[in-house]
Amino acid sequence: MTEEEIKSTNWTQSVAGVCIKDGRVLLGRHTYGSGNGKLIIPGGYLKFGEIPQETLAREFMEETGVTVKAGKMIGIRFSEKDWYTVFIAEYIEGEARSDGDENSEVIWMDIEEALRDETVPGLTKTMIEAAVKDGGMVLTPYNTTRPRNYLYT
């Protein structure tokens, strides 16, 4: 990561997405940190000036080569130092591939297999389960004068 990328990243705001296609979920085998060697849902930190939906699309393209758009918001985790929100990542197009950096492989895995796999961490399993339920919050239009202001209900 370049010095400029480090300075432009908001290390307190991150997103991830669950992308399901034909009964399989898109996962990447992480190459660093506490997720090293684990199959996790793609995601990452926002850049200053980005909104979560933009970050989701950018991170999926960078990490997996797959084009997605943010669908329902299915989870959000807050802590005293940061927040992390998870969307349904609606598949648009693309062939899954590793970025050769943050992940060593990107695969489409059967949902039930992913929920049993010991290399899939608990948070990823919880978000996969949330994605297959008929719930979540959707982008809701409302009358506002603020540009780039989004509401999910």
Return the string of H and E elements: HEEEEEHEEEHH
Oligomerization status of the protein chains:
single chain
Strand order of the largest sheet: 5-1-7-6
Query: Which geometry do the CA atoms define?
Result: globular
Q: If you compute it from the alpha carbons, what radius of gyration comes out, rounded to the nearest whole angstrom?
A: 15 Å
Structural commentary:
A four-stranded mixed β-sheet has the order 5-1-7-6, sandwiched between helices. Strands 2, 3, 4 and 8 form a four-stranded antiparallel β-sheet that branches. By secondary structure, the chain is α+β, with helices and mostly antiparallel strands. The mean pLDDT is 95. A hairpin with a 4-residue loop joins strand 6 (67-78) and strand 7 (83-93). It has helices at residues 3-8, 52-64, 111-116, 122-132, and strands at 9-18, 20-21, 24-30, 39-40, 43-47, 67-78, 83-93, 103-110. The chain has a single domain, classed as Nucleoside Triphosphate Pyrophosphohydrolase, CATH 3.90.79. The chain is built from four helices and eight strands.
